[in-house]
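Q: Hi! Curious about what DUF523 domain-containing protein looks like structurally. Here's the sequence.
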Amino acid sequence: MIVVSACLAGIECRYNGTHSLDKKIKELVEQDKAILVCPEILGGFSTPRDSAEIIGGTGDDVLEGNARVIEKSGKDVTELYVKGAYKTLEVVRSVQATYVVLKEYSPSCGSAMIYNGTFTNAKIHGEGVTAALLRREGIKVISEQELINIV
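A: Let's find out. The predicted structure is below.
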């Protein structure tokens, strides 16, 4: 079983109320080979919501208490991101997922790149809060581009 970011299957749950449809991922869901998860929704956010970025580091730093997730308005939403990460971990464990495919650049889901915290569309190497937690727990986290090599 594969767990995938819901937005990649066409669910309009991104911060701005859109999706990031990946046709291969949608096919996997339709074939019952993948299940959907949105860490931000699991954390308690609604759609749409303010965009957010990690300030002061990466997802690992957030989990260590050394960085924060802040909305563009300045509101600190770190607790909701951490809550969503742990709820996602519960889902992943409950279905014994082999892989988790997450949406790149997200402060939750970025698996290799995230925005740098300046709200200028600049990106840095690093992972989001959920990707960092899952990897800490030994779960294979990949981006949608990496999925092509697996299925």
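A: A fun detail: The chain has one domain: 2-147.
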